[in-house]
Amino acid sequence: MNDDVLISYLLGEVSAEQARKIEAWRLDDPAHERRFKQFQLVWETSKKLDLEEPIDAVDSLARLKLKIKDQHAGNLQVVKPKTNYNWLKAVAVLVLIAGVSWFYVSTQSVEGLKSITTQFVKSDTLSDGSIVTLNKNSVLEYPSKFLDKQRQVSLAQGEAFFNVMPDRKKPFLIKSGKMQIMVVGTSFNVKIKEGFVEVIVESGKVQVSSGKGSIFLLPGEKIKVSANSSIMEKEKTPDLLYNYYRTKKFVADDTPLWRMVETLNDAYNSKIVITNPTIRNLPLNTTFNDESLDDILQVIGRTFKITIEKKQGQILLK
């Protein structure tokens, strides 16, 4: 929708059919309505102007309209004016719109925000309605408003679960190191650890890009990419342990002991070490619901009849 057509609409210079098309355009996107309101505000202000010296308003209007970039508004055509509005004020509208619209767009402040967690899990709602849950020791950087064609955020550290509000016209983009994750509306988990970025999809479709390559992930699929590698291979998500920080549950379903130990070390910032290689792959079938690390280890010890020893800051499984 170009500026010329909107101005003609405000001046009452469009037919009923053309007006309906403009009103449909306004309803199609909140951004369209905001733009129209800006024009309307300037028009109302211009009607209060009291210009003393006469000018060739028709000529000025024609010249100013030529300067407006034509954005091809379909079949909308300007017709003969049907209002009593003074052409001099119409010229004023064009001048004000050119100046005020530029001022409005160029001076909107977008504050860069940072969400940081240390010992607690935290959820934040972004300006578009998307919800991000940050695990402990994580850092998310994001703008106070999404004004660009993309909704871009950056996971600088740690782990986060994203529940993205759908918006096909403005994709959601996450940057994490050299990796980019692009979605429209979906839910997925992103984790940065020891030089690797891991993405696990719960719903929707996610495009992951690294270097020159990209890959699409569907629900139940994951990918783990090294910061120094462009190799991208997806695999099935083996279990639901990754979401422990949101659900407060550790769900084991034929889960090998080493995998449970890895998750417990992340969750409790502990140093559990399996010293006996023969027990690494023992399958665990249980659910721990917001229990302490000591209680979980006692269950594991009784289940597999193994010895648990605390020594020099480590927890040894023998």
How would you describe this protein?
With 318 residues, the protein is of the alpha+beta class. It has 3 domains: 3-107; 112-236, Jelly Rolls (Sandwich), CATH 2.60.120; 241-317, 3-Layer(bab) Sandwich (Phage tail protein beta-alpha-beta fold). 31% of the residues lie in helices and 31% in strands. It has 8 helices and 19 strands. It has helices at residues 3-10, 16-28, 30-46, 57-67, 87-107, 244-247, 257-268, 293-304, and strands spanning 112-116, 122-125, 131-134, 139-143, 151-157, 159-163, 172-176, 179-183, 187-193, 196-203, 206-210, 213-217, 221-226, 234-236, 249-256, 272-274, 283-289, 308-311, 314-317. The strands form 4 sheets. A 7-stranded mixed sheet has the order 1-4-5-7-8-11-12, with no helix packed on it. A 7-stranded antiparallel sheet has the order 2-3-6-9-10-13-14, with no helix packed on it. A hairpin with a 7-residue loop joins strand 13 and strand 14 (234-236). The longest helix has 21 residues, at 87-107. It starts with a helix and ends with a strand. The model is unreliable at 50-58 and 69-85 (pLDDT under 50).
